[in-house]
Amino acid sequence: MTRTYLLFETAAGYGLYQIDQWDQIGSDLSLDELVSNSERFSGTVKFKAFQPFRTAKEALENMRSITEGEPTLLLTNFLSQNLPQSDHVLAIVDVSLAKSLSHKGFKVIYDSNVLELVRGCRLYETKRLTKLASGGTSFDMNNFQVGLGHSYSRSKLKFDPSKQDKPIINSVSLLDTLTKNLNSFAMRVREWYGWHFPELCKLVPDNKTFCEAVKLIKRKEEFDFDNLEPLNELLGEELALTVKKASRHSIGHELADLDLKNILNFADNVIKLDEMRTKLSGYLNDKVSMVAPNLNCVVGTLLSGRLISHAGSLVNLAKSPASTIQILGAEKALFRALKSRTNTPKYGLLFQSTFIGKASNKLKGKAARYLANKCALAARLDYFCDVNTDVYGKKMSEQLTKRMDYLLGGPQHDKNINVMKQAHEEYKQLSNLAKLNEKVKRTPEDQTEEKPKKKRKTPAKKNKEQNETEPVNNVENEQKTVDKDSESGEKLNHVSESEKVPTVDGEPAKKPKKAPKKKKEQPEDSEKSSKLVDGVSAPESNPKKSSKKKKEQQESQSAA
Q: What PROSITE patterns does the record tag this protein with (predicted)?
């Protein structure tokens, strides 16, 4: 009979439960009653084993792998240790995780009944698992779940930390909406104020300057046209004089106070929107030059931002081929042409580039292909290079101008490989400078704190060091033995000379005849030492034997 087990994943670890009467649960329609009744649920779903997470890092890694549908080594070891070898089935909630476990040899099931049983485990078994995970200490499961959720979301948001292309996408969309709103609001101001001074709308085409002129003039009857200094600063002398002449023969009617107040408020809003757009365009320029400097040099700030936003990210733009970049933004026309079997479009967003605008109608296709090729190279360089520089982008922009001159009948330009070699040499120099700057930025305190780690010696290195040190140690030991032998000989001579002559019946005994010969023993000791140095060993003298002979001689003299 096959046994059914349930895997319950929590923030604290993995829980394994044995389910009794799985066939009845699958055929029974009152599964909600089983989950709602705690006693009946505990009798049906029995606790089997629990594997806690040791650290928060381990919990995050397991959570990330489970969401991706890949079982970790901890999970597979836990299941293989606690599940029987045969006649068992494992119930799992996630379909992708169940498929990956089935590839590893586990018998797996997943259906709607498993979801209900997991819901019951969340209701009744969370307290038990928290106690097992804490080991008797105070452990707040809710706080741990919140912290794990924050760390998981933080890791998902940091999927592309080095390339900050998400703000570029948002700023491009915001810039488009700002320009649309600004144009519509400026048209309303022109139409509203045109009933009073219609000639000013034709003379001043810029929206911001028109709104500033409206705030300055207000009513044309009350404005002092004799003092044209503020109007000259805003419009210039020639345009200020034409406005003065037009005000004398204007066909507009008078404005009420309430209408003028609303027009001025609306003009203030238009000026603020224009200032906001200029700030946003400056921010976009800085961001694009930091994230994609080479692409910025090739097609400009706004067009490079549009390409990144349309592709979704800089990664997608770098991975896409030049043919895809060429028709980005013209998807509707492409599918319409494929459906009707007509000619496909030659360009999409790249049509906004000045490089294609300068080309003639016959050369626009060639220009679009060449520009798309350079955009693909620039995007890949921006994403995959270690140091963000615009060296390659500047060379590519020079190539674009020379290519356009060549298409129009100019001289032959340099080959791409030669230009890229020059750019690569400059990039090497910049990368070396960046590495030096990083080393200089490190303070000496940081260098002292970062001590080099001791490398473990391999057995081969240890044997080499022992073989190298053995001859040196042998020579040192030989020198030590020679010194010891010479010192022992000198001590023996000193003892023999300093020995006192024993007395017999109060009279001093005569010295033995062999005593003066001991002075000649020093060269013998030196000869012994030289023999030792040469590697020949000499017999050592015993001071005990010499003392015994002296005693025998003294006894013989006393007996005589």
A: NOP (PS51358)
Name the DSSP class of 10.
-
Structure tokens at 389: 């520089």
Contact of 307 with 375, CB cutoff 8 Å: yes
| Strand 108-109 with 503-504, pairing | unpaired
Q: Alpha helices of 229-386 — where are they, by DSSP H? A: 229-235, 237-248, 257-291, 293-299, 301-311, 314-319, 322-326, 331-340, 354-358, 364-384
Distances, alpha carbon 334 to alpha carbons 41, 311, 338, 364, in Å: 59, 16, 6, 17
- By DSSP bridging, strand 503-504 and strand 507-508 are antiparallel
What domains are there in the chain, each with its CATH number?
3-157 (3.30.420.220), 168-282 (1.10.287.4070), 293-417 (1.10.246.90)
∠ CA 197-203-207, rounded to 5°:
85
Angle at which helices 166-193 and 207-217 pack, to 10 degrees?
40
Q: Give kind and range of the element (H or E) at residue 204.
A: none
Q: What is the pLDDT of residues 467-518, one digit of tens each?
A: 555 554 554 555 555 455 555 444 444 434 444 444 444 444 444 444 444 4
Highest mean pLDDT among 25-39, 75-89, 264-278, 408-422: 264-278
Other CB atoms within 10 A of residue 252 CB? 15
Residue type, 312: G
- The pLDDT, as a whole number, for residue 25 is 66
Cβ count within 10 A of residue 478: 13
Radius of gyration (Cα) for the chain, nearest Å? 48
Q: Please check whether residue 71 is in contact with residue 104, taking contact to mean a CB–CB distance below 8 angstroms.
A: yes
Choose among 349, 346, 328, 350: nearest CA to 337.
346
Distance (Å, whole) CA 372 – CA 360: 17
pTM of the complete model beyond 0.70: no
Token duo for residue 429: 């120099």
Separation between Cα atoms, residue 173 and residue 339, nearest integer Å: 30
Among residues 10, 101, 110, the alpha carbon closest in space to that of 63 is found at 10
SS3 of residue 108 by DSSP: strand
